[in-house]
């Protein structure tokens, strides 16, 4: 039952839901007896679980209740809660940023130049948000292609940029990527994405249109990856120039592929 409480269900909702999963289709009276939830509390719990789309009512002379296929229902419920949480998070951030600092001048017209966040999930969000605003170029330096499934998900978004005639380039780092991820590299190249290689480590950068960039520190000694987002044109332009210089010095993937025996 505790796992359902962690999902956000109340004590009575958890008891009723777990009971229905165990006994199958049943009426409210039987659910009350089996779950030890008072009769007066069973109906509100059932109504709430129906609204959360975890169970459904079979109406008749006596209403019956049954759980919806649990793997689908719980996944949908969790995704809905996740979207609600993200919405609340964004509202909270906007509200927090709107609060005036005591003893300081009004900064409402000042442009955000730099922000620091932590974690891979937020790093991915910044990538996807930037892709939506891209008009001309999207450059990435510092990928390893270690997590294949994740990179195929990103490829779907990069393909949309290619369709818009946007210049997409990636400089891979780390140990020789062509030895382990040749198929993944070829799939990226097949979509029109240019890829090269440099033997660097522990960081990655993306630059959008020379106007925005993100620097991510990935040192294994750090407790979490650090994401430094830059929204200043001059700083982003400098990073854009750094990428283009690195691109000139980078190796073509064909030049680092192991020779066949």
Give a quick precis of the structure:
This protein is of the alpha+beta class and 261 residues long.
Question: Can you give a write-up of this model?
Answer:
By secondary structure, the protein is an alpha+beta fold. It folds into two domains: 2-70, Winged helix-like DNA-binding domain superfamily/Winged helix DNA-binding domain (Arc Repressor Mutant, subunit A, Orthogonal Bundle), CATH 1.10.10; 114-256, 2-Layer Sandwich (Endonuclease, Chain A), CATH 3.30.870. Helix content is 49%, strand content 20%. It has an eight-stranded mixed beta sheet with strand order 4-10-9-8-5-6-7-11, sandwiched between helices. Strands 1-3-2 form a three-stranded antiparallel beta sheet. The longest helix is centred in the N-terminal third of the chain and has 29 residues, at 70-98. The radius of gyration is 26 Å and the shape is elongated.
Number of helices: 10
Question: What's the oligomerization state?
Answer: single chain
Q: CATH H-level name of the largest domain... which superfamily?
A: Endonuclease Chain A
Mean pLDDT: 83
Strand content: 15-25%
Poorly predicted ranges: none
**Shape from CA axes?**
elongated
Neighbour order of strands in the largest sheet: 4-10-9-8-5-6-7-11
Number of structural domains: 2
CATH architecture designation of the largest domain = 2-Layer Sandwich
N- and C-termini, Cα separation: 59 Å
Q: What is the number of beta strands?
A: 11
**Helix/strand order:** HHEHHEEHEHEHEHEEEEHEH
Radius of gyration: 26 Å
Tell me the CATH topology of the largest domain. Endonuclease, Chain A
Measured as a percent range, the helix fraction is 40-55%
By helix and strand content, what is the structural category? Answer: alpha+beta
Largest sheet, strands/sense/barrel: 8 strands, mixed
Give the class-level CATH name of the largest domain: Alpha Beta
